[in-house]
Amino acid sequence: MSDTGRQSFTDKATATLKPDSEKSTTEHFGDKFKGKSDSAASSMQPQSQKSTSQKVGDAFSSNSNETQPSMTQKAKNAMGMGDSH
């Protein structure tokens, strides 16, 4: 379960698993906006105040206050399903 004010893990997984080629322009903009909002919320929330599940979720989605690609993005890139962030 994600912390209050953060994007749900289900929404993140759904957006990540759907290939970019199958997304509409609206979906691309929505994903980008939600991702940036969630990343900002992650950066503003101190690690000490995050639940264990949120810390794990942030590690997988690259919202752990670092600029490294997420494990999910690395996997998508390796399979040729993502852009090369």
UniProtKB/TrEMBL annotation:
Residues 1-13, 39-75 have a biased composition (Polar residues). InterPro entries: HSP9_HSP12. Pfam families: HSP9_HSP12 (PF04119). Residues 19-37 have a biased composition (Basic and acidic residues). Residues 1-85 are annotated as: Disordered. This is Heat shock protein 9/12. It comes from Lentinus tigrinus ALCF2SS1-6.
